[in-house]
Design a protein that fits this description.
With 277 residues, the chain is an alpha+beta fold. It contains 5 helices and 16 strands. Strands 1, 2, 3, 4, 7, 12, 13, 14, 15 and 16 form a 10-stranded mixed sheet that branches. A hairpin with a 4-residue loop joins strand 2 and strand 3. The longest helix is centred in the C-terminal third of the chain and has 16 residues. It is flat. The mean pLDDT is 93. This is DUF2797 domain-containing protein. InterPro entries: DUF2797. It holds the Pfam family DUF2797.
Length: 277
């Protein structure tokens, strides 16, 4: 437990299987800690600073302390595995236009993901499928196509979305409504089967079983949809659950939802009764 107010830089948020991890860098003693995620009491800054990089298993803060608004890292600190950051979302080629094509040329999958009875289509690298579904907080998912590379997968994802009116993302407000009750696997299976049948009339899918993703750390479900709060400012309360990028915590005025991915790059000031370690 932290015994005094401490300023720490949020340098990463990720899932280790079904365990969420928020990494904090303490510039005072050059140490890396984890943010405790059962009871929170901290304030977050408005500005975001580049999160630096890992080099030979050693964390190196951004030398320029570059202020950012969009990406988590500046160009100098970004991973060489992703030579063009914009290609994460909209690949421009099949890997022939840059000197580090592995990110785009490895096999990718197109998948359907369920959030209770809501469905979306997405794509990711084949080896990151389960990790990506957990990052997005889906309740169930299945791969429906394997593609040669990222561009092919992105193109197919957009075509499926347009042809069958399947969204490529679920709006945060709709996601909050799914927190109130536990998802029904039979209901999700029915939605999945319906759309898979539609897609099969156009292109033969993999016909994989729908896998449940039901090990998220949710201890208490709110009585009404949590209110999404801005990352900047003070956050105090008992954590009710974490799913995808959202942490839901209780307050005297009701449940609140904090986007943990948006904390990355910010400085947080941890108070004495926070359980961070």
């Amino acid at each position: 437990m932290t015994n005094d107010t401490a300023a720490k830089h949020v340098i990463a948020y990720y899932w280790d299987a079904f365990d969420p991890v928020v990494l904090l860098y303490n510039s005072q003693n050059n140490s890396i800690d984890k943010l405790g995620l059962t009871q929170i009491n901290f304030s977050a800054s408005e500005n975001k600073i580049c999160t630096g990089k890992m080099e030979d298993d050693e964390y190196i803060p951004c030398p320029q302390q570059v202020k950012l608004t969009k990406n988590a890292t500046c160009m100098k600190c970004s991973s060489p595995a992703i030579p063009v950051l914009e290609c994460v979302f909209e690949p421009r080629c099949e890997g022939e236009r840059c000197g580090s094509p592995l990110f785009c040329t490895r096999p990718h999958v197109v998948y359907l993901a369920l959030y209770s009875n809501l469905i979306k289509v997405g794509m990711t690298s084949e080896k990151r499928f389960k990790e990506r579904i957990t990052e997005q907080g889906a309740d169930a998912a299945a791969e429906i196509f394997v593609c040669r590379n990222r561009l092919e997968a992105r193109t197919l994802e957009k075509e499926i979305s347009a042809r069958f009116k399947i969204p490529q993302e679920i709006k945060p407000g709709a996601l909050m409504k799914q927190w109130v009750t536990a998802p029904s696997m039979p209901q999700m299976q029915n939605v999945y089967s319906t759309y898979l049948q539609k897609i099969s009339t156009w292109k033969k899918p993999l016909n994989k079983d729908l896998d449940a993703f039901d090990k998220y750390p949710i201890t208490t479900r709110p009585k009404s949809p949590p209110k999404i709060v801005h990352s900047k400012g003070k956050h105090t309360g008992s954590v009710m659950g974490i799913k995808g990028r959202f942490l839901v915590y209780s307050t005297p005025k009701g449940a609140r939802a904090l986007d943990l991915s948006d904390l990355v790059g910010r400085t947080i000031f941890i108070n004495a009764d926070d359980d961070s370690r």
